[in-house]
Amino acid sequence: MIAIGQAAPDFTLQDQAGSPLRLSGCQGSPIVLYFYPKDDTPGCTKEACAFRDAFAEYRKRGARILGVSPDDPKSHAKFVEKYELPFTLLADPDHQVCEAYGVWKEKNMYGRKSMGVERTTLVIDGQGVIRAVFPRVKVDGHSEAVLKALDELG
Hints:
Blueprint: E1 12-15, E2 20-22, E3 31-35, H1 42-53, H2 55-60, E4 64-69, H3 73-83, E5 88-91, H4 96-100, E6 104-109, E7 112-117, E8 120-124, E9 130-134, H5 142-153
């Protein structure tokens, strides 16, 4: 698992339009990097909509929101359009980035084990250093906690 104070591992992934986005190319402003299991599922939709509803507050803080899941760009595009998400979603179909960030884990659901994304959010400062980590995110109240972490960046 990545840790507070370390440089965020760099990566390049396709966004919902199929264009490449490199994390290090976003330096200069804070980044909210959130990992989620699947587009258009109840918890993931609730989380994305909470970030959407508070988007003006993130903008005020100069922060950029990037969501990452194993879904492909086409799935992300539908999810963005359906819920009018004003931020970028990134496709990690081979879960290399999820693995690099330590969020690709064994999950146990109804007694069945499978591999998947453990809902996790990171706040990265403008120099690319991880300043906050929210593991095993509970969606209710999460966006507010992330905004508070951004405020603490100064």
